[in-house]
Design a protein that fits this description.
Layout lengths: L1 H22 L17 E3 L2 E5 L5 E9 L6 E13 L4 E5 L14 E2 L5 E3 L4 E9 L7 E10 L11 H5 L2 E9 L7 E7 L3 E2 L4 E9 L8 E7 L5 E7 L10 E9 L7 E11 L4 E11 L2 H27 L16
Parallel strand pairs: 2-10, 12-18
Antiparallel strand pairs: 1-3, 3-8, 4-5, 4-7, 4-9, 6-8, 9-10, 11-13, 13-16, 14-15, 14-17, 17-18
Length: 329
């Protein structure tokens, strides 16, 4: 009996510890004050427009010098394309020979150098001129502002680009537009101890123009009841042609969750609102349930062992001694 009581006490402490460690631990975090005035700021950071072949468009970038010193900056233009699946752009020079989705050669400006006094705000004007034979689809460029004069004879390294600030330009030329995409992946882990549940969506652009997928993930419990929904691509990120982009969305349940859940993805993309869809299922099994099942099994095992030990200590039944009958003669 003492062994049984000690086992129950130990398992009770273990249960309390696991529950508290799973739900009440607060992750450590560090905070840092934002440092103001360390470099230029521009607006807008991204420009999206539609240009017909032969059409021109005048644009303005507002540049702010938040520092307390005179800054000399030099504008230059480059093309960009998708780099990896996170939405990061990869820049390449206008003279690289990649003309399929290029835009840099369409951008013209008169100023080759700007001097900004402390806390000055200036408006930099430039023109985008689409060629008469501009290929329908998407074209992508960037207007950079560097603190050193550009050197056309040298390749601009990624380190140099990181020290610049730029405004991305995404142009759409109407005509034989091909909006086509495929859902490469819609997945999550099969088992969770608690929410949030992380969904991964990977979309491949098979067309010739960028688009912003939008839609939601609907989550249902095992009884078929709508539990919740998650908005996909709330930041309105673009998927560029010849690229695959990954979107990660988290579902944080508002109440008690347990059992099997299903998730249905429903997206639309492009000006024609074409559809992408997918389905999956996952389980949420809370840590307290796992501990409870383990506790019950351990108690059953302890009881079985205790019963066997008790039986081993019980003496076997000894048959009674036969009494011999005494016959008197």
């Amino acid at each position: 009996m003492k062994l049984f009581n000690k086992t129950l006490s130990l398992l009770s402490y273990l249960l309390i510890f696991l529950i508290l460690s799973s739900y009440l631990l607060i992750p450590l975090s560090t905070s840092a004050a934002l440092q103001q005035g360390e470099g230029l700021t521009i607006s807008p950071p991204i420009l999206e427009l539609t240009l017909k072949p032969g059409e021109s468009s005048q644009q303005t970038i507002k540049i702010t010098n938040p520092t307390q010193k005179l800054m000399e900056i030099y504008p230059l233009v480059m093309n960009f394309k998708a780099s990896g699946e996170g939405g990061e752009p990869a820049f390449y020079p206008a003279t690289s020979g990649e003309e399929k989705f290029s835009l840099a050669s369409w951008i013209k400006f008169n100023q080759t150098k700007l001097a900004l006094t402390p806390e000055q705000v200036v408006e930099f004007k430039y023109q985008i001129q689409a060629p008469a034979d501009a290929e329908p689809g998407g074209h992508y460029g960037v207007v950079f502002f560097a603190t050193e004069p550009p050197k056309p004879e040298q390749d601009i390294s990624q380190v140099a680009i990181a020290s610049m600030i730029g405004s991305l330009v995404l142009a759409r030329v109407p005509g034989a537009i091909n909006e086509n995409a495929s859902l490469v992946d819609f997945s999550t882990h099969k088992f969770y101890l608690k929410t949030p549940v992380e969904f991964t969506i990977r979309i491949k652009n098979l067309g010739n123009v960028h688009f912003k997928p939008k839609g939601e993930i609907t989550i249902q419990n095992s009884f078929g009841k709508n539990s919740d929904s998650v908005t996909v691509n709330e930041a309105k990120g673009n998927v560029l042609p010849d690229s695959t982009r990954k979107f990660t969305e988290n579902w944080q349940a508002s109440g008690w969750t347990f059992g099997r859940f299903s998730a249905a993805l429903s997206l639309t993309y492009g000006e024609t609102s074409q559809n992408l869809s997918g389905n999956l299922s996952f389980w949420i099994i809370p840590i307290w349930f796992i501990v409870l099942i383990g506790l019950i099994l351990l108690i059953i095992i302890v009881l079985i062992i205790r019963r066997k030990k008790k039986r081993a200590k019980t003496p076997k039944n000894i048959p009674p001694i036969e009494r011999k009958k005494v016959i008197l003669r």
